[in-house]
Each structure stands twice: as structure tokens, then as C-alpha cells.
Amino acid sequence: MKPLEYAIEKEGEITIFKLMKELDYLKVSEFDIRLNEISQDANKIILDISKLEYICSAALGSLLNHFNKARQNGKSIVLIGLNDKIANPFNAIGLTRLMYFADDINEAKTMIEEMENEK
Amino acid sequence: MAKLILKIPGETSYLSRIREFVLDFAKTLGFDEEGLGDIEMSVDEAATNIIRHGYDEDPDLPDENKVIEIEITKIDNGIEIAIQDRGKPYNPKNAPIPNLEKHFEQMKTHGLGIFAMKQFMDELEHNYISGKGNLITMRKYLKSE
Q1: pLDDT band (50, 70, 90) for residue B59
Q2: CA A64 to CA A81: how far, in whole Å?
Q3: Confidence of residue B92 (pLDDT cuts 50, 70, 90)
Q4: pLDDT category, B109, cuts 50, 70, 90?
Q5: Among partner residues A1, A2, A85, which is closest to B37 by beta-carbon distance?
Q6: DSSP string, A20-60
Q7: For the segment B27-42, what is each residue's pLDDT rounded down to a tens digit?
Q8: Which residues of B touch A (CB under 8 A)?
Q9: For A94, which residue in chain B has the nearest alpha carbon?
Q10: What's the farthest any 2 CA atoms get from each other in chain B?
Q11: What single DSSP character describes residue B91?
Q12: How are beta strands B78-84 and B133-141 bridged, if at all?
């Protein structure tokens, strides 16, 4: 059984959660746990999905729930690296309208700064 | 190669093998990244539904019957994927399309799999074969230039 492949990096106040390879139903629970842990410690999160090759619908639902909870708690989450292979599910389910996306890490940092300034 | 068959245990640990099997075949047919992503998600969601709802929720079904058989066929300008289970009758075509706004408002994380299958494949059929199980057949065609 292949575990969830990920990396967590810190840049100042920002935590970068990099997801890799596949996020299917088998790995949704671990994804939930990791994102919960990160959300408890960090107020500014960048979720890098540029190396993610597959995401299942349950993971998309979970991701949106985390995003909504973070927003309710005054935290910022921005996604970067939405690639062609996984873009369609995000678009079809409407997540590209509901969540924040940036092209790269610098744009994500700027978006987070702007969100913080609006508070 | 015009047709391939994979018979595999109906367990979540085999989902990646199922996706790999279908994707490797679909790549040879010329689908682009977007098309491959659509096919991968549809197959994965179909198999996940069988495992979670058809097998895990049926304590009377013997373990040796909890298998998934996938047949992939090159068709004219596309791919046909037939997924056979041994579960109770369940027709995904009859499942309602969720109201996505309400779905997420209620913080639901499941129930989007059938939406994905209907959304991403060009054709979706269901047959229940008595004494055998459900047969879901999906087709996707290459985009015309």
C-alpha cells in the first residue's frame, strides 16, 4: 500500500504543503489528518498541487471543507500549480470559483498578503 | 492491442493498479492530458463506488466474490471501458446529480463520483446480469481536430 506522498516546508509565516503523485480514496484520511495538523499550526497555507497526478472526488470534497473551515477561522489557503491532468475535476465541481488559485508561489504570497490586509 | 482484461480484488489498495491499467491503454489511443485525467477519474470513481458501497457494505457477500473485472476496448475513435462487479443491483445512471452548492454547504465530502462519471465520459450504460452483477460500460471519444 503506497502512502500519501507529500512535503511540508516553512517560509516565514507561510506553510507550504506539497502534494505529490496520487490522492485517491485510500489516501483521503491521511490527507485530512495532515491538512488538519497544518491548519492548527499555520494561518497562511500554500497548497502546491503541481506534482499531483490524480485527485479523487472525495479528496476534492475534503479540500473544499478544509478551505471553508480555514476561511471561517480567518486563515488563508491558496492553491498553486493546477495542471491540465487534474484541472477538469476542479472546474467541473466548481472549485476554481470557490477557492483561491495562483500560478506560482510568488503570486500566492501576494494573494495571501492582500487577504491579510483586507482583514 | 484492441482489448485487455484485468481481474482484480475489490479493495481500495488496488485502485492505483486499476487506474494504471486503464491509463496505459488510453495513452496508446492518443488521448491528451485532459482526456486521460477524465478517464482516470471516471474509472477510479466507478471502482471506488463498487468497493465502498457494493462490497464493504454487504457483509453477506463472500470475500472471494469481491472482485472487479475491467475490460478495455479500442473502439472507433475512442475507448470503451466495461466494469463488472458481483454486488447487488445498482444503477449509477439513476443516481441524481447533486446540487453542488448545497452539497458543499453541508460539508459533504462524498457523492461526487457518479457526477464525475457522467460529466467526464461521453456515454454511460448500466446492465444488471442476474447471477453475476452490475456491468457499467463507459465510452469516451477522442476530440475531433
Answers
A1: confident
A2: 17
A3: confident
A4: low
A5: A85
A6: EEEE-GGGHHHHHHHHHHHHHH-SEEEEEEEEEEEE-HHHH
A7: 999 999 999 999 999 9
A8: 12-13, 15-16, 19, 32-34, 36-38, 40-41, 44-45, 48, 52, 100-101, 103-104, 107-113, 115-116, 119-120
A9: B100
A10: 50
A11: -
A12: antiparallel
ipTM value for the complex: 0.86
Sign of dihedral through CA atoms A90, A22, B108, A112? negative
* Chain A residues contacting B via beta carbons under 8 Å: 1-2, 22, 24-26, 28, 54, 56-58, 60-62, 64-65, 68, 83-89, 92-94, 98
Helix (H) or strand (E) holding B118: helix B113-120
Percentage helix, strand, coil for chain A under 3-state DSSP, each rounded to 5: 50, 30, 20
Considering only CB atoms, B15 lies closest to which of A25, A68, A94, namely A25
Question: By C-alpha distance, which of B58, B82, B65 is closest to B10?
Answer: B65
Nearest to A65 among B44, B109, B116 (CB): B109
Between residues B45 and A116, the one the model is more confident about: B45
Nearest chain A CA: its distance from B41 CA (Å) = 7
* pLDDT level of residue A10 (50, 70, 90 thresholds): very high
Cα–Cα distance for residue pair B21/B72, rounded to 1 Å: 9
